[in-house]
């Protein structure tokens, strides 16, 4: 299955796009069909991979290029052991304040390690992957970045992958990446706070809610909020039996906590 069904049409419209940061007249990808790989192992038995498009890079290394019209098509691979304070963020299209304060809002390593310790997942893969938050050329994502990332997940024997975009544009980027990963037989879940974009690009599984760019996996310093987003999204990897987009039950409980002064 093609990662972009009408790639020629996209490329033609992309050539005429002005490259503006507010994405005015940007030709978002539209797909009709989605690949789908049923989960081959239960969550407590699998190796879970994590892909973030918050633009994380290690302090002292080169940041992602945010000035190119096409975007930066590279990815970074990090061991879990790299500490949160060692990362900086090349952010475009989202405010990095929340992820700088608490990386779990976009890179929920601490939350996923808790799931691993409690047997919810078999294990969190020993490395995770970071891509740029600003990659306008979706055709190059499909041709270059997405297949390369899928190859890395296969090489690490990942059985399911959680994808967390940070900006509006990278909802599209990771939607394409999810399609590539799923085409390799690895089940995916993409968490979305922009259903309009993700429904157009058609990743195989999407868990969406009304959240904020830059805090897609939950609010900073609010562990229960983060767990509420992640818990349902992860468990849905098992229960989806076809490509679908489903709303997370986040808002009602959060409003109740806020009214009580709980956080």
Summed up, the domain count is 1
- What is the gyration radius calculated from CA atoms? 17 Å
What's the helix count?
A: 8
Fraction of residues in helix: 25-40%
Sum up the overall morphology in one term. globular
Q: Strand share of the residues?
A: 15-25%
Low-pLDDT runs: none
State the major sheet: 8 strands, mixed
Q: What's the order of the H and E elements?
A: HEEEEHHEEHEHEHEHEH
Number of strands: 10
Residue-averaged pLDDT, rounded? 95
Terminal residue distance = 44 Å
Describe this entry's structure for a reader.
The protein has helices spanning 7-15, 97-101, 109-117, 138-155, 168-183, 195-201, 223-239, 251-260, and strands at 47-52, 56-58, 75-79, 87-89, 123-124, 127-131, 160-164, 187-192, 205-208, 244-247. The protein has one domain. It contains eight helices and ten strands. Helices cover 35% and strands 16% of the residues.
Topology:
Blueprint lengths: L6 H9 L31 E6 L3 E3 L16 E5 L7 E3 L7 H5 L7 H9 L5 E2 L2 E5 L6 H18 L4 E5 L3 H16 L3 E6 L2 H7 L3 E4 L14 H17 L4 E4 L3 H10 L3
Parallel strand pairs: 1-5, 1-6, 1-7, 7-8, 8-9, 9-10
Antiparallel strand pairs: 2-4, 3-6
